[in-house]
Amino acid sequence: MNTLTISATASVSAGAGRRAWRRLAANRLALLGLLLIAVALLASVFAPWLAPYDPNAATPMLRNGPPGTDGHWLGLDAQGRDILSRLLWGGRPALLASIVPVAISVLLALAAGLLAGFYRNRWSALIMRVIDVLFAFPMVLLAIGLATALGPGGWAVGLTIVFSATPYLTRVVYAGVRAERDKDYVEAARACGATSADLLLREILPNVVSAAVVYGTTLVGGMIVFQAGLSFLGLGTQPPHADWGRMVSEGAQVLVLGAAHVATLPALVIVTVALSFNWLGNGLRDVLDPRD
């Protein structure tokens, strides 16, 4: 009987997975976003093997060379470094400093939002007041403060994104828990003797986690732009290491010299990857919508 139950459950899960994939595949923008994200991640992971040149090796006589210059497909920057190689390597800090902090924020938000939304006591009120305080910190000022305390680099950017993203995600989870906690299925489970932990983890969590995942996926796109902005200001990855935002900053200094590709190419990559996460998030919202 247990074997039959497990098999039936696995069959239902597989069927639900196939239906979810078909719905996601039907959304062309979401599918395109997923494909572009996969390409960006793979290109960053395999940058040591894909990059045609050392990203920090300079050829001064070819500075600001246009795309196609002597085998440099995307041209060279103001110091004569291969732009394609730097784009491949620059994806590592850009994606790492955006995806990982948002993932941490989702976990923190799920914990804080579940506790604050389920219980009706002073501790839940205290959690939400702390979240309100975090809302009061402007992201750029927080980044500057952390960069001053920790020094500019990935740690400051990552902590800034965690502090900035967690309040928004917590609000999403909190609102979902408040909407679910008094519904009939929760009351039925409580009447059957379910503990508070069972209600939170088995009944309510599955119904609010999708909203956090969808919002977090969309938020990654904004955080990629934010991370690039911090690098543009000199608070992110430090030279000579490649970073998309710093590449835009360095390219902006040579726009007057007619080398528009130096800043335009990394800017296009930033916008494309950020939009891809937004497209995927919108697609996941339609797939995971419990009302459908």
Automatic annotation (TrEMBL):
Transmembrane segments: 29-51, 94-118, 130-149, 155-174, 212-235, 255-281
GO BP term, pick one: transmembrane transport
Species per Swiss-Prot/TrEMBL record: Bordetella genomosp. 1
PANTHER family linked: OLIGOPEPTIDE TRANSPORT SYSTEM PERMEASE PROTEIN APPC, PEPTIDE ABC TRANSPORTER PERMEASE PROTEIN
GO cellular component: plasma membrane
The protein's name in its UniProt record: ABC transporter permease
Domain ABC transmembrane type-1: from-to ranges: 95-281
Record-linked CDD domains: TM_PBP2
Keyword Cytoplasm: no
Recorded topology in the membrane: Multi-pass membrane protein
Main location: membrane
UniProt-annotated location(s): Cell membrane
Similarity annotation: Belongs to the binding-protein-dependent transport system permease family.
Pfam entry (one): OppC_N
Keyword presence, Iron-sulfur: no
